[in-house]
Amino acid sequence: IMSKNKSSESVKVVVRCRPLSRKEESNGPAGGIVQMDLRLGQVILKNPRAPPSEPQKTFTFDAVYDSSSKQRDLYDESVRPLIDSVLAGFNGTIFAYGQTGTGKTYTMQGLWLDPEKQGVIPNAFDHIFTHISRSQSDKQYLVRASYLEIYLEEIRDLLDPNHGNTRGLELRESPETGVYVQDLTSCVCKSIKEIEEVMNVGNQARAVGATDMNEHSSRSHALFLITVECSQPGPDGRKHIRVGRLNLVDLAGSERQAKTGVQGDRLKEAAKINLSLSALGNVISALADGRSSHVPYRDSKLTRLLQDSLGGNAKTVMVATLGPAPQHYDETLTTLRYANRAKNIQNQPRVNEDPKDALLREFQKEIARLRAQLNHRRFRSKQKKEQVDGEAEEFVKLEEQRLEKENEAIREDQFLLAEEKQKLLGENEKMMGDLRKRQEATEQLTARYKAMESKLLVGGKNIIDHTNEQQKMLEMKRQEIAEQTRREREMQQQMLIQDEEAVELRETFTSLQQEVEAKTKKLKKLYAKLQCTKAEIKDVNDEHVRSRQELEQTQNELTRELKFKYLIIENFIPPEEKNKIMNRLMFDPEEDEWKFKPLVPDESKSSQMKKRPASAVGYKRPISQYARVALSMGTHSRYRAENVMLLELDMTPP
Ligand code: ADP
Ligand code: MG
């Protein structure tokens, strides 16, 4: 992979708050606890249990979206630039993070049937294929989609009809593409309709596997992956391929799962449910901290899959979703802290140019090969004055009639011997067969060529663009406005920071009185800030204590479980058996599991086994005299009773 535009940029974090639900509204007049300053990109959180004197908590993000925000606004402002980058050959990731029921799925998928309420994913489909149809005709595209979910630390392919029966897929790592899922189904998509179909198939597979869809979706992570390969002639005249990979991630609910009070398998399961999510938290903390040298990507499947998206070669947008209800204050605060930390992660995105494993290159080669074969065929047929193209069938029909007439003539010819007649007829028959075979082969070749070629989308051609100029203008204007809003907000945030710094610079005062006033004002401001920070420290400490208590509790339970197993082993398993088992065990770090070494090492011992006992010389295994006689008698009924099964293997000496 060539590196280009190598530079560092931070993860973009936006926050979205959903409206109060009808049920929450009926709970009382309390209203929401989340306020938003759209212009500044700030979230102000009110603690419903705190005295009014306590300062409110304020967080600043790249953008915030309140309960009246439109799907379209979020897309145009925060997602569109990312998808544009993917189309230019960058890796991109969007993930939605938040408590269950706060709108992760609404943001990522939305309501498909209402164009106003379509989420990020359908809008991205639209965006990608519209872009392709409007690009120049010297560009060729190949779009592929995959869909997987991570549930209880197992990766399931949602596009594989048998995914329920098979074991989870495994992760592999290659220097070219980084971490990838082995044997994951990937579908070539030629239109919005096709990629929507892929999405639907996956969503159905997800629902079928789940006993309770709500619980399932709140505990599993769903990843929709789109790969866009684009080939374009470069200044050197050769075709260059850029590959953009897009991860669209709907994470499991971030609320704490109660782990306490469960035992055995249930405990193991409970530990796995949030493993990926807590590992994600640890990765984000380690990256945001900047000081820790070890980032624990390997702790879970999710963090390994998102390794590039967090601190690697990708552009990343995180959408943190909140609910406005007072009873979820703690969760909402945790989400905001999490999101706040993620802002500090630095990525190093670069354009993926001419990677060795580009599928588009393979396709181009295959198409060129098929075309050459077809041309060769045409050329040969022209020499023989056959015609292969449109009139091919016509030609075959004519030829058939001609041969049929000849056959007739031969049959009626009275001067020919019967034998000769037969021979001539046979020859004609063969000619006919050859002709048909050739024709069939050409047809097959043409079909394959056409199928192959149709998979590649050519700029400005494959998809009919229904939008007229006016609509295009409107879209452009909307994008401009989104861009404007974004820049304005950045400026506002910049100004806020400068304001705070400027206070210290204005040190020249005309009178003592003025100086006192200014300094008092400054003191008050700083005092408020101090209080905020103190409260923050206390909160974070409390949270640490809480999570430590939880961990200790889990540890206690695990220790108890361990003691129980020890008790059984010490009292009921003979020591030599135990030792045998212990000697065979080894740890597989790739799958994070203990495994048995195979009893017979593959190669080394097999040569020993080949030495046969003397009684088996000439046979596959030792055999009695009686059986030998039986063998030589074949299937004689006298000996039937001895070898009832009559296995082929037994009967044939080597
Ligand atoms: P999650 O995936 O985080 O568990 P959902 O996306 O399923 O949450 O959202 C829960 C409910 O709230 C759904 O009925 C959804 O339609 C509604 N909802 C979420 N966000 C919004 C929003 N921004 N505007 C309107 N309704 C929303
Ligand atoms: Mg959901």
Write up what this structure looks like:
It is found in: Cytoplasm, Cytoskeleton. InterPro entries: Kinesin-like_fam, Kinesin_motor_CS, Kinesin_motor_dom, Kinesin_motor_dom_sf, P-loop_NTPase. With 654 residues, the chain is of the alpha+beta class. The protein has a domain at 9-353: Kinesin (3-Layer(aba) Sandwich), CATH 3.40.850.10. The chain has helices spanning 22-26, 71-87, 104-108, 120-134, 192-209, 213-219, 264-273, 275-289, 301-305, 329-342, 359-383, 392-412, 418-455, 469-505, 512-572, 575-584, 606-609, 625-633, 648-651, and strands at residues 9-10, 12-17, 34-37, 42-45, 57-60, 63-65, 92-98, 140-151, 154-157, 171-174, 178-181, 187-188, 221-233, 239-250, 315-322, 346-347, 457-458, 585-588, 593-596. A hairpin with a 5-residue loop joins strand 13 and strand 14 (239-250). Adenosine-5'-diphosphate binds next to helix 3. Residues 104-105, 217, 250 line the site of magnesium ion.
Features:
single chain; alpha+beta; three-stranded antiparallel beta sheet; 19 helices; 19 strands; disordered N terminus; binds adenosine-5'-diphosphate; binds magnesium ion; Kinesin-like_fam; Kinesin_motor_dom; microtubule motor activity; Kinesin_motor_CS
In short:
This protein has helices at 22-26, 71-87, 104-108, 120-134, 192-209, 213-219, 264-273, 275-289, 301-305, 329-342, 359-383, 392-412, 418-455, 469-505, 512-572, 575-584, 606-609, 625-633, 648-651, and strands at 9-10, 12-17, 34-37, 42-45, 57-60, 63-65, 92-98, 140-151, 154-157, 171-174, 178-181, 187-188, 221-233, 239-250, 315-322, 346-347, 457-458, 585-588, 593-596.
